Hints:
By secondary structure, the protein is mainly α.
Amino acid sequence: xxxxxxxxxxxxxxxxxxxxxxxxxxxxxxxxxxxxxxxxxxxxxxxxxxxxxxxxxxxxxxxxxxxxxxxxxxxxxxxxxxxxxxxxxxxxxxxxxxxxxxxxxxxxxxxxxxxxxxxxxxxxxxxxxxxxxxxxxxxxxxxxxxxxxxxxxxxxxxxxxxxxxxxxxxxxxxxxxxxx
Length: 180
């Protein structure tokens, strides 16, 4: 057993472990993408709210009568407008909205990778962080759902990167948008 532990530090074994983990992440996203939380009510509610808000300007939940938006005045409109704007171009479809969430999560991971580079983390540490970011359940859940979490993380990750680049005006602007 000590001999096996000593081999774990070799570059060849580390590359093989990285490869196995990356293949595992790809398999998770390919094979579990459509079946993870298959009947998530929040997805239908958010997509219906985004559609009604973007197309008709409705702030009440006229589709499900859930009362969760009960005449909201300020909040949740950014997410509805963002998803609505893009889905109005590519088509109002659950799969396209899910892909948009996945792209937002991928962008968030990339912003974190760049932020860690700005903080002088070693390439291996940045890569390990990025792999763990995509392997964690919260990333997978946000990438496969149609709620605000992926958009908020996208804005917060971008704001953190811009803060490290000393772009303070844009940090304030993006942080304000993400709070909404």
